[in-house]
Structure to design on (236 residues):
């Protein structure tokens, strides 16, 4: 279980304090698929940075199974992220001079897997995402949707129980967006906790629960996740 308790974050710009998160309280159960929706500037990116252990709040606590994330050292937080959290971004952050398979191998290399295990795991994940025939292609040789699938495979390489997705469909066409959302639902059904930030209400319907972030405050929303996901082109 993940708990955010009285999280308060503010930035200092030109001598003024600008609130980003205002006493946010939120609990995410294990195995939940939570969507966080809100307009640009609502605090979504700050929320994910705090949740992912990358930005210390001014006050409040982030607890993972009762353990305070920000009572750990920065090295301990980095180690926690490496084994527990997989990140998916709108910008795929693929290494341009590496192949798809080599990009997926990178986290495994950093965790000192053998070369044979790296290659086997990367090939399996890319095949699962429909890229068995693109293992040796570099990012520039792949479509935008294929690049996102490589990024998803890389995210899964260390088998994280928690997935944090920041606008994962933001740069994709409607059909590819639906495929990515369906895959996130599949990962959630396997028991992983998925937390997705999005500006698109249609994308949020992939989740089982939705909260709205407005002016740094969280409000619960009702969503109909039984309807088919039909992403409008204008949201891409």
């Amino acid at each position: 279980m993940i708990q955010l308790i009285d999280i308060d974050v503010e930035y200092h710009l030109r001598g003024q304090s600008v609130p980003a998160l205002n006493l946010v309280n939120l609990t995410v159960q294990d195995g939940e698929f939570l969507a966080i929706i809100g307009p640009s500037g609502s605090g979504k990116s700050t929320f994910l940075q705090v949740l992912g252990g990358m930005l210390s709040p001014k006050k409040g606590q982030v607890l993972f199974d009762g353990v305070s994330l920000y009572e750990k050292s920065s090295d301990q937080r980095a180690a926690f992220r490496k084994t527990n959290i997989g990140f998916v971004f709108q910008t795929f952050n693929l290494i341009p001079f590496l192949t798809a398979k080599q990009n997926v191998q990178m986290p495994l290399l950093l965790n000192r897997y053998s070369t044979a295990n790296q290659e086997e795991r990367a090939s399996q994940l890319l095949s699962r995402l429909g890229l068995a025939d693109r293992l040796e292609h570099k990012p520039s040789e792949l479509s935008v949707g294929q690049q996102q699938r490589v990024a998803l495979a890389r995210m899964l390489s260390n088998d994280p129980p928690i997935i944090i997705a920041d606008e994962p469909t933001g740069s994709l066409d409607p059909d590819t967006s639906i495929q990515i959302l369906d895959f996130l639902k599949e990962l959630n059904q396997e028991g992983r906790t998925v937390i997705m930030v999005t500006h698109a209400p249609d994308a949020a319907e992939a989740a089982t629960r939705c909260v709205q972030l407005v002016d740094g405050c969280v409000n619960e929303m009702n969503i109909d996740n039984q309807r088919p996901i039909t992403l409008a082109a204008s949201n891409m």
